[in-house]
Amino acid sequence: MLTIRLLGELEVRQDGAPVLLPPSRKTRALLAYLAATGRPERRERLCELLWDVPDDPRGALRWSLSKLRSVLDREGAPVVTADRNQVGVRLEPGQVDLFAVRAALRDGVDGAATQILESLAAMFAGPFLADLDLPQSPELQSWIAATREEARRLHADILYILDDRLAADPERALPYARQLVRLDPWAESAWARLIERLNALGRHQEAEAQYTAAGKALADIGGPTRRLERARQPAAAPPAPPKPAPPTAMRQDIRFCRTADGVRIAYALAGEGPPLVKSANWMNHLEYDWESPIFAHFLRGLAEDRQLLRYDARGNGLSDWDVGEVGQEAWYADFEAVIEASGFDRFPILGLSQGAASAITYAVRHPERVTHLVLHGAFAAGRRDPAGIAERKAMSTLIRGGWAQENPAFRQLFASLFIPGATHDLADAFNELQRRTTSAECAARYFEAAGQLDVLELLPKVSVPTLVLHSRGDSMVPIEAGRLLAAAIPGARFVALPGQNHMLLEDEPATPRFFEELRRFLDS
């Protein structure tokens, strides 16, 4: 059986024995390109990629094909296929390592068994086509660089999940933690994992040496933070199960500003470090959110190593409730007014759920000020089909009639949509928070306006690094909405989180994964 390795130095094997490839770099690049794309390509396209016009590109292509046929084809089993218009290679996905990895992770890294992930990790012998750069062919070199980055991300995702799953067995997890540091030496979380695994094995001197190495590697981006300091401290004994932190408020500075149409907007700063801006989403309250077991842990996580800027959009929280306009442009005006009042220059934005619309709009209109864009549980447009419109009208009527009643039966309906995995006490806390955050009329107008959001045409215009995260079983905003965002935003990375909650609760596995991905992305 013929196999081709692209993850590392290009290598071809026939029945396990290495095949000696032609020495021509362009001939080997031709094979790699056809194997990696997995589809026939027009002769003209291949000539444009690999050869200059004065060099008789068609003749060069024919020569390279003859060389590849001589080493790949077997009697009765041709690998190289060609006609007057197209050229390809006849290979199954399992014969090319990159395709094998992609196929195994078709449903995401989270859903793959640990043994499968370990076998996939072993396929990465190095960067994609580590020995094959062709700077004299800039378009092909650009493709190599892009595919190399895709492969690196896949490799990193596999290693992070393996390290998570094997943390209780540090001896088994250690090789993956080492690979993470080699793969991403500027990611503090990778160094922290390596140091934690070494300390867990009692190898404290080596852990201290790695801490020193991490300090040198991270010096250009601010040096180690508390995350690395915590990893540095070896545990004297197996830790007791952590007690849930009480949902007490972090010290925050609440301020007010006004939008161009005169609406007073409340915003707050909490934590220390580089900035992180969170756009407003469904029903926020700058004060009560810190008291709620629904949001307090999430806000603490966001503000742990950063200065978190958040605000209450018009119609809820500490901002004006009695307002004329509510909707996409009005919410964006709130966001822009808060940014200007904060004095922040460059910053990442986190957009949750409907807050993604303002985040995306700002990133398109002011790309020079946005360093990273992170979207979670987000959607680009509300439902416009007849069933969606009818459902929205029915829900608005129910909101107006049931929101403020002492009996929380109606608000429980919202809890079952936003956090179906919540306990009874958490659902009650969510219900009470909604009642205190806004009026029935404001909530109904908010719900109607959220269903009319539409930033689809802006997605291809996003030019900042983007991370899209979405819970697999999200019943409020289906995961397909997140996949659409990631597919339409150039270069966006998509991460599927386990679970069914639209809002991430403190004790669910998706929450630490969210913060791991967030910090790794913002540190990149």
Question: What report would you give on this structure?
Answer:
There is one protein chain. This protein is of the alpha/beta class and 524 residues long. The chain is built from 20 helices and 14 strands. It has an eight-stranded mixed beta sheet with strand order 7-8-10-9-11-12-13-14, with helices on both faces. It has a three-stranded antiparallel beta sheet with strand order 1-2-3, with no helix packed on it. A three-stranded antiparallel beta sheet has the order 4-6-5. A hairpin with a 5-residue loop joins strand 7 (252-258) and strand 8. Helix 1 packs across helix 3. The longest helix is centred in the N-terminal third of the chain and has 28 residues, at 138-165. The two termini are 40 Å apart. The model is unreliable at 243-248 (pLDDT under 50).
Q: Concise description?
A:
Helices cover 47% and strands 13% of the residues. With 524 residues, the protein is of the alpha/beta class.
Largest sheet: 8 strands, mixed
Mean pLDDT: 86
Strand content: 5-15%
How far is the first residue's CA from the last residue's CA? 40 Å
Shape: globular
Q: Which runs of at least 5 residues are low in confidence (pLDDT < 50)?
A: 243-248
What is the helix content?
40-55%
Rg on CA atoms, Å: 27 Å
Q: Strands of the largest sheet, in order across it?
A: 7-8-10-9-11-12-13-14
Count of DSSP-assigned helices? 20
Report the structural category.
Answer: alpha/beta
Strand runs, count: 14
